[in-house]
Amino acid sequence: MIFIADRPDNPNFAVLKQAILSFSPQTSVRIISSEAVLPTTETIYPLTFNLPDSLEFSAKSVYQQCENVRELQQWVEKNLEYATGEGHYWLPIVLTAKGPLYAEAIAQNNETQTYEQPFHLADVLRQPLYHLAWELLSYLNAPPAVYTLQFDWQGEEIFFDRLFPFPHESTHISLGIQQPDLLTCHGLCLTQQPILDLTIVTQ
Question: Which CATH superfamily is domain 2-200 in?
Fold first, then answer.
């Protein structure tokens, strides 16, 4: 399995590799830069949108549709009637083979430029947000993985920004906070392993 990342030397990726190897110890797992020479015989799993033009995907892949932000926003506006706009919060969705699990939302602290999880959302926001996520994943016919929905809100109205078809960098905050953390979840989803629940570790 080949993963492409902006910072392949990020030590946090070790938990992603470990999650895969724990269930498939014979699997070769490498995390490389988009500037490296890419193999032509192995499946590529992006962890970034910064990919070389030479890398080809099947027509209308989930990755390509998520990369085309404005087109996906227009689909949401037309078919789901949600507003769109710049988002400053993230909802991680752990899509297992049996369905989605919604992790606690993540926010960015503007003063420290760090991420915070869990970020409490009122129920009046959670339900339309979960509905938006489910409809998007269904429309994209998304395979099991961890997805990250970037959003915002005003009053009781949700604003859709974009969907990342991989754990956004904000999800790294889940290490030591959520069990299993979101990078581990990504590895488990890609290897078709069950995930029964997501829990926040008591601080």
Answer: ATP-grasp fold, B domain (3.30.470.20)
Give the phi and the psi of residue 162 in degrees, each rounded to 5.
-160, 170
Q: For residue 8, is the peptide bond before it cis, meaning its omega torsion is within 30 degrees of 0? A: no
Tell me 103's DSSP state.
Answer: P
Strand blocks (E) in the chain: 2-5, 30-33, 44-46, 83-84, 89-96, 99-102, 105-109, 114-119, 145-154, 157-164, 178-179, 199-200
Q: What predicted TM-score, i.e. pTM, was given to this entire model?
A: 0.94
Host H or E run for residue 193 = none
Q: How many CB atoms lie within 10 A of CB 108?
A: 16
Q: Domain locations in the chain?
A: 2-200
Distance CA(175)–CA(62), nearest Å, equals 26
Count other Cβ atoms within 10 Å, centred on residue 153.
19
Per-residue pLDDT tens digits for 25-82? 998 899 999 888 777 677 889 999 988 777 776 656 899 999 999 999 999 999 999 9
